[in-house]
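re: ur question from yesterday

yeah so i grabbed the chain u mentioned. its 399 aa long if i counted rite. heres the sequnce exactly as i have it in my notes:
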Amino acid sequence: MGTPREMTPAPTFCLIAGEPSGDRLGAALMAGLKEALNGQVNFIGIGGPQMADQGLQSLFPMEELSVMGIVEVLPKLVGLLARVRQSSDLILNSAPTALITIDSPDFCLRVAKKVKAARPDFPIIHYVAPSVWAWRPKRAVKMARYVDHVLALLPFEPPYMQEAGISCDFIGHPIATENVASKAEIAAFRREIGVTDGQKLLTLLPGSRASEIARLGPMFREVAQMLRKDMPELAIAIPAVGARVADLQQIFTGMDVSILDPRGLSTDIAEKQKRACYGASMAALAASGTVSLELAAAGTPMVIAYKVHWLTAYLIRRTIKITTATLVNLVSETNVVPEFLQENCRAELIYPEIKTLLMSKSHADAQIVASRDVMVQLGRGGDASGARAAKSVLNFLKA
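ran it thru and got these C-alpha cells back, copy pasting raw so excuse formatting
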C-alpha cells in the first residue's frame, strides 16, 4: 500500500454487508475492533440486526441487497445501482479510515470500484474471499484493481488472492468459535415447542431470501409430508428471519410445524433459540450456504438442497470448477453431506436421504465426525475470528 498510515485516536470504519451471513461476520468484526481499540472506534455503513447491536445505524435496510443469482438480480438492477451510488457517496463524503465490504460481491465490489476510482489511495478491505477456486477464477485479478486486502474464511484461499496481487489473511469463520447450545438450553427448547422425550425433531431451512423460499419452500413441505406418512410423530421446526415469517406461514399452512419467529426478540435471544433448535434436531434439510456450517457446528446431520433459475445455473456451470456446493464437503474433502442441486432438487430424491439420517445412527455419526474436523480447521479452539479479523485489518492499515 506504500507509505505507513497513522491511525487516528478514534478511527471510523465503513462496513457494508448485504445478507444475514455478512451481518453476522460484520458484527463479529465490529466487536473485535471495539475490543482491540478499547471502544475508541466509530462505524458507518449498511448492515442488519447483529451489526446494529454493535452500534451501526444502517444507511438503508440491508434486506434490499439480499438478492442472489444473475437472472434474479435483473428486475432490481436499477434500484441496486442507485444504492451503489448512495453508498459510495457516503464513503467519499465522510472519509472514513477504511472501507470494509463483507461478502455480497455483486453489490460490495461495485461500491469498492467507484470509491477506488475517485480516491486511488483509499484503503479497501474485502471480508470473504471470492470463491475463485470454484468458478470465475479471473475475478481475483479484476478485484486487485480496487481491493487492497482480503480476509479469508477458508484455509486454502490466501494463495489465490496473493497470486493476483492482493494481500490476504486466513482468519477462520465465526461459526467455528461461537458457543453451541447447552444440554439445558436444548431441553428447554424442546419443551418450549412441545417436543416430548424420545420424539424426533427435524429442522427445515429453506433459505433467508424471498426467492429461495419461493423456490424451495413448497418442495421442503412436500418432503416433510412424505416423512410424516412414515413417522407421524415427527416434530418439525423452521427457524426464520423476521422478513420471511409470513412467507413460511403461508407455505406451511395446515401443517403442524413450529416456525420460529425472531421478531420481538433480541438478536442474542433469537440466535440462542436457533442454536438450540439445531442442537435439538436429529437431522436438517437446508438450503446451500453458511447454514451448513451452523449445522456442522451444532453436530446436526444434514441434507443440502438448492435450486436457482435455470439460466443462472447454465451460466454458472460453464465456469464451475468444483463438484460440491456444501462447505462441509469442501473443507473436509469428502461427500459426507448429501446434496440435491438443480434438476436433482426433488422431494422424491431427498426424502430417502433424510429418512436414513433420522433412522440410521451410523450415517448420522459419519457426518458428525467430519463436521468436528471442519470446525477445527476453521478455528475452533483458537481466538474468536472477529478478534483475528480485527487484528488483520489493523495490521494491514499500519503496514
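noticed a couple things. The chain is about 50% helix and 15% strand. also The chain has a mean pLDDT of 90.
anyway ttyl
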